[in-house]
Amino acid sequence: MISHMDIEIPLDRLTVTASRSGGPGGQNVNKVSSRVEVRFVLAEAGWIPPEVRARLRALFRNRITQAGEFRVVGSRYRDQKRNLDDCLERLRGFLREAAERPRPRVPTGPSRGSKARRLREKRFRSEKKRFRKGGGESE
Q1: Is the distance from CB of 38 to CB of 12 less than 8 angstroms?
Q2: By residue range, what is the domain housing residue 54?
Q3: Which of 29, 34, 90, 125 is a Cys-bridge partner for 25, taking CB atoms 3.0 to 4.6 Å apart?
Q4: What pLDDT sits at residue 78?
């Protein structure tokens, strides 16, 4: 088990598959399965708290398959072990990001400067329209 921020990642609950990778590797790439794919069904991941699961679904929609599996693929390195470690590290990062609660927005009022600008523009528009009517010259 790998843990971070009270979230244990049970390796037995992950589906890990290896396949042939594209990219660098020369002739080696045609015979060695170095690309690693780590996936798990998000709805059945009881080891992830529900609010973190919901944020994972919202933040990383493009990583979820139609079957509801969360998927991380790694083919950065030329050997399977390093790609697996890379996938697990990236999964930890996704969990870390989803575990952070977004700070609630504190509504603020308009600033003094923005109020002044609004009133200045309002006066300018008013003057412009008054001159159009022909009664703009005040004596």
Answers
A1: no
A2: 2-99
A3: 29
A4: 82
